[in-house]
Amino acid sequence: xxxxxxxxxxxxxxxxxxxxxxxxxxxxxxxxxxxxxxxxxxxxxxxxxxxxxxxxxxxxxxxxxxxxxxxxxxxxxxxxxxxxxxxxxxxxxxxxxxxxxxxxxxxxxxxxxxxxxxxxxxxxxxxxxxxxxxxxxxxxxxxxxxxxxxxxxxxxxxxxxxxxxxxxxxxxxxxxxxxxxxxxxxxxxxxxxxxxxxxxxxxxxxxxxxxxxxxxxxxxxxxxxxxxxxxxxxxxxxxxxxxxxxxxxxxxxxxxxxxxxxxxxxxxxxx
Amino acid sequence: xxxxxxxxxxxxxxxxxxxxxxxxxxxxxxxxxxxxxxxxxxxxxxxxxxxxxxxxxxxxxxxxxxxxxxxxxxxxxxxxxxxxxxxxxxxxxxxxxxxxxxxxxxxxxxxxxxxxxxxxxxxxxxxxxxxxxxxxxxxxxxxxxxxxxxxxxxxxxxxxxxxxxxxxxxxxxxxxxxxxxxxxxxxxxxxxxxxxxxxxxxxxxxxxxxxxxxxxxxxxxxxxxxxxxxxxxxxxxxxxxxxxxxxxxxxxxxxxxxxxxxxxxxxxxxxxxxxxxxxxxxxxxxxxxxxxxxxxxxxxxxxxxxxxxxxxxxxxxxxxxxxxxxxxxxxxxxxxxxxxxxxxxxxxxxx
Lengths: 271, 351
Description:
The complex is a heterodimer of chains A (271) and B (351). Chain A is of the alpha/beta class and 271 residues long. Chain A is built from eleven helices and seven strands. Chain A folds into two domains: 3-155, NADH:ubiquinone oxidoreductase-like, 20kDa subunit (Rossmann fold, 3-Layer(aba) Sandwich), CATH 3.40.50.700; 166-269, no CATH class. Chain B is of the alpha+beta class and 351 residues long. In chain B, the strands form three sheets. Chain B has a seven-stranded mixed beta sheet. In chain B, strands 5-4-11-10 form a four-stranded antiparallel beta sheet, with no helix packed on it.
C-alpha cells in the first residue's frame, strides 16, 4: 500500500507531563505495526518536522490558557478524528487541583509581579472545550487500551471508556482486596481499564481514571468514616487509619477535580 | 452405594499430590505470596505449597474451568469468516475443594446444561480430577442453611481430617488411581467416628444462619413488599460487582471481539460479568432495564433465591460467604436475607 493512502496521524501536547505520549513510545516494536496503518506527520517528542494537515489527532494534556483553547479548536477543525490521551485531557487530573484558588492569586504566588502568563484560565480537560471522538483515560494511559482504541479508530467503531469499577479487574485477576492490607482504596468508584495495575503491585487505587457513572460516593463516605459493625476487612482499615472526610476528599483531589467533586455525608445519616 | 473408604496419612496426602504433579498440573489452595494468611487457587509449584486447612479463597475454583477472561475462538475477516474454536486440552488435578465449592461446580453443571447447552464448560470439566476436602467454617460460612455441607457431587476423591491423617472417600476410578499411588490403611471405627465428629463440629461451629430454608425464601421474595429493604441496601452498595465475581454459583458472562493489529484476524473473548454493574442490562439504544441500583440489588436476591430456584430447583447460593467477605461496602448476604425474612413474615402475620 503506498504510504500516501494511509491516514495521517499527529500527536499534540497541552499542559501535562507528556508521559502519555512517552507511554505510546513504549510500544516499541508494536509501533511498527501501527505504522502499517497510519503515517505519523507530527510528534514533537519523537520526530522533527510537522504538518498542517492530519486526519487523526492524538492530544494529551489540559487546557490552561486562552491560547490553548484556540489551539485545540484549530486541531479539532483540522482533524477528522480527535483522540484524547490520558486523564489530563479527559478529566483535568492534577492540573485542575489549582482551580480551588483564583487564577490571579496563583500567578502572584508562582511568578510574583512579573507577568509571565497573561492568559491563564482555570484548568480544564480537552473534553470540556471541544467534542472528542475517542478517549483513553489513565495516568498514564494503559498501552493495551491505547492499542484497542487505535484499532477502533481504524475500523470506525465507537469506543466507550470502561465504566466499571476497578474492583471488577481486581477480582478477575484474583488479586487480594487491598482493604485486607489496611489500605484506603478508591477502586469501588473509579473507572477500570487499567487492568488494576496499581493493586497488582501492592498499591491501592488512587482514582486516576475518574469516577464511574453513578458512583456511590455516599457509600464511600459511610464505609470509611461511619462503619459501625466492623468487618474484618474494615477492621484492618479502621485500625491503621480510619480516614476523616477531609482525608478522603484529598485523596480524590489528586485526580478528580473537574468538575469539583462534592463529597458530603448523606443527609439521611447526619454529620 | 457408600463410597470405598481408605485412610491416608497427612504426609501421604502430600505424597499423593507429589505423585500427581509428576504427570499433571495440580491446582490447589496455596498461600498468597503478597499476603500471608490469605489463600488462592493456584497451580502448585511444589506439593508443600498446598494448604489443606485453608478457610477460603477470593475466587472460587470455577476459575480452573472457566477462566475469568478466556478466548472462545479465533476469526478472520474473510467472507465467509474462518472460525477456529480454541479449547483447553490439558488434563489437570483440582485439589482442596470444599463441599460448598463442589456445590458451586454442580450448580454450574446444571445451569450450563440448559438449552442452549454449553459446549466448553462440560468439556473443561471433563479434564479435571477433583479432590474435595472438608473444612471448618468462619463467621461468613452458612452452608448448613442451604444444604451444601455434605456435597460430594463431582468429586473423584474426598478427604476428611481424622486423628491419624485423612479419611479418603473414593468416588471414581480416577480418584482410586490417585490414591493408589500412596500407602493407605483400612479405616477403623475410630477413623469413621473422627470423620463423623468433624462434620458435627463443622455444623456446631457455624455462626451464620439463614432464618428460613430456600423454599420459604423463594415464597417470601415472590410475595414482594420488600422495596424499602432493596433501597436501604442499595444506599450502601457501590455496584462494584464483587459479590458476583467471587460467587461460585454465578455464571453470567459478556462477550466481545478483539482484532489483531493486522485488522484481518481476531478473537472472541468472554469475560465473567456481574448483574450489579450499571451496564449489565444495557441494551441497544442505550436503554437500561435495571438502571437503578436498588433494581440491581433486588435482582441479585431474586436471581439467587427465586428465579433459578423455581427454574432449576435449587438456590444459586452455596453458603460459602465469599460475597459478604468480598463486599467493599460491608453488605452481608445473611444479614440482608434475614432482614427480609423477618419483614416478610411480619407482613404475612398482619395480612
